[in-house]
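User: Predict the complex.
Assistant: Input components as received:
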Amino acid sequence: MSEKKVRACVVGMGIGKPNGSALAANARCEVVALCDLVTERMEDFARELPGEQKFYTDYKAMCKDPDIDAVFVGTPNQWHVPVALEVVKNDKHVMVTKPLADSERAAKQLVEVAEASGVVNMMSLSTRFSGQCQYLGDLARKGYFGDLYYARARSVRRSGIPAWNLGFIQKGGGAFRDMGVHVLDAVWYLLGMPKPATVTGVCGAKFGPRGRGYWGFREVPQSTYEQYASDDYAGGFIRFENGAGLQVESFWASHQPNELQIELFGDEAGAQFRPLKLFKTQDGVPHDINVDIPRPTKSWDRIAGHFIDCILDSAPCEAPLRHGFQVQQMMEALLKSGETGREIRIA
Ligand SMILES: NC(=O)c1ccc[n+]([C@@H]2O[C@H](COP(=O)([O-])OP(=O)(O)OC[C@H]3O[C@@H](n4cnc5c(N)ncnc54)[C@H](O)[C@@H]3O)[C@@H](O)[C@H]2O)c1
């Protein structure tokens, strides 16, 4: 195990905070710089961190800093690829929040450049790295479920459209890229990351453009909601090359209760995510097993720890940007199917 420490920079003082705190809490990492358009946000976060941080308001200048080895990118979606490209072009390791990009094309470009550069490139995926998902993933790999031939995944909010940065509701944002992406990534991981073949879906915006359905039933000004240009719901079906099927749904706002759920159908056993349960038949008798994972490590600590292990110990990356690209391909295909009314075949 390397004695060295990773010197990290955190970009974006929203989701950058839990990611940055986890990096700073790891004994093999120090957060040496912050980058945001708003200096006060960096000052606020720096007060929570050990050591001292340089502040950057220009990510290009930050990427030139030789005292930074690795960068977490937590800007609004539209900035993930421009910032991450600059990071890898300057030979720094990169970790990007979800979704990888605001389009399939941008995601592909970043993956190609990142892989060619040879730096560690990783997605920060809080649902995939949760204790529950890791536990189910281990069971799946050990064959507990037998053949996983079907799954359902949904993320539904009653009134949860975020509008604190307009990137969420403008083109390149939307419910599926914001929220659906978590359950899609997690269920795809649990299914063993099969190759998608076809995608069909519906999508639209029933609440956002009318000024309804915003986070916590808050009212937002018309100047905000008239800029609405993304989906607030999407649902569809993905058929994989191995014959498995996946029903996936994502609603930022709806007349339904809040829910985040994944259900796995295997020919030996099944599972649900929340609350975590396993379903099996033993001696002809159905067994419903409640699973209570003892003191789960926080996703953020697991993500930070794995990023550092990849950098310092050359551990094989379990969540490379390529996975973010493959999930983006499925998301964009579903949204395209919704817009065109046609099934989309994934090349
Ligand atoms: N569980 C998760 O993994 C999770 C949760 C929430 C958000 N996110 C992702 O994090 C991203 C940001 O969402 P948020 O809720 O943190 O938003 P936010 O608005 O709270 O924070 C974004 C920050 O980025 C800064 N910023 C914007 N453009 C920048 C640029 N060009 N250079 C440097 N800084 C810039 C803003 O000033 C702001 O402080 C989104 O892509 C979202 O999908 C992930």
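The longest strand covers residues 148-156.
Let me know if you want any component modeled separately.
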